[in-house]
Design goal:
- The structure is a single chain.
- By secondary structure, the protein is mainly α.
- The protein is built from 3 helices and no strands.
- The protein has one domain.
Length: about 80
């Protein structure tokens, strides 16, 4: 194998070629992160008023207890 002497200018050109197009890639990545952030903000907004299942179950148990104590029959669907 023949060794080729690489000058600093050759090295600079190689490095420059290696970084060519990276700006576009980072812009695409930034846009995707912005889209994901927007989507997560939307999802959080939708979930803000959602009751967790465990909280619902506890409340349902308390209501059933009160209904039994008051002899009220709850209509079940």
């Amino acid at each position: 194998m023949v060794k080729k002497n690489i000058t600093i200018d050759d090295l600079a050109v190689m490095v420059q070629k290696g970084f060519a197009g990276q700006d576009e890639k980072f812009e695409k990545i930034d846009k995707k992160f912005d889209d994901m952030k927007r989507d997560l903000t939307f999802i959080k907004g939708q979930l803000a008023d959602v009751v967790h299942q465990s909280e619902f179950d506890k409340l349902e148990g308390r209501v059933e207890y009160l209904e039994n104590m008051l002899k009220i029959s709850a209509s079940k669907k």
